[in-house]
Each structure stands twice: as structure tokens, then as C-alpha cells.
Amino acid sequence: MSKAGLRGCIRGRRKRTTRRDLYATPAADLPKRNFAPAAPNKIWTAEITYIDTWERFLYLAFTLDIYSRRVVGWSMATHLRTRTR
């Protein structure tokens, strides 16, 4: 988009959704940046996206199998809290 001189449309104020912990230890790079698995179910990746609806702000989390690029699982909620058991 930037090469074509295009920008995404942002209406209203930007929402700050993530605050980095400056003292946290980074997670280990287990796949060693090799994102070309030889078979399904060897490497999964997760993503969280934010959806602004007319009623509220929703969070969509999903897990992808990198080999097949299929969704392994997903969840949607109005918060980013984790469940405690």
C-alpha cells in the first residue's frame, strides 16, 4: 500500500490496545525463524485482531497451522482476560 501511496482509513481516535512490559523476558524462538514445516501440525501460529463494531470492541483470537494455512481454533470475546481454573 505504501508503494502505491495508499493509507488505511482511521475514523475517530486510535485505541491503545497493547502495553509492552519493558522488564519481561522475550519468549524463545522455538521454530528458529524456519516457517516452512515439512508436514501438517508441526508449527502453529496465533494471532489476535481487534474488531470495532457498532455495539462494542471485540477481540478475535485464532490459531493457524502454518503448513496447511488452516484455522485450527478460534475464540471471540469482549475482553483479553485469560480464564483461571
Which percent range fits the helix content?
under 10%
Q: Roughly how many Å is the radius of gyration?
A: 17 Å
User: Average pLDDT across residues?
Assistant: 86
Shape: extended
User: Mind describing the biggest β-sheet?
Assistant: 3 strands, antiparallel
End-to-end Cα distance: 44 Å
> What percentage of amino acids are in beta strands?
25-35%
Number of strands: 3
Structural class: mainly beta
Which consecutive residue ranges, at least 5 long each, have pLDDT under 50?
none
Number of helices: 0
Q: Which strand order spans the largest sheet, edge to edge or round the barrel?
A: 1-2-3
**In sequence order, what are the helices and strands, one letter per element?**
EEE
Describe this structure in words.
A hairpin with a 4-residue loop joins strand 2 and strand 3. The mean pLDDT is 86. This protein is mostly beta strands and 85 residues long. It has a three-stranded antiparallel beta sheet with strand order 1-2-3, with no helix packed on it. The protein is extended. Helix content is 0%, strand content 31%. The protein starts with 43 loop residues before the first strand and ends in an 8-residue tail after the last strand. The protein has a domain at 44-77. The chain contains no helices and three strands. The protein has strands at residues 44-52, 57-65, 70-77.
List keywords for this structure.
mainly beta; 3 strands; extended
Summarize the topology.
Blueprint: E1 44-52, E2 57-65, E3 70-77
Antiparallel strand pairs: 1-2, 2-3
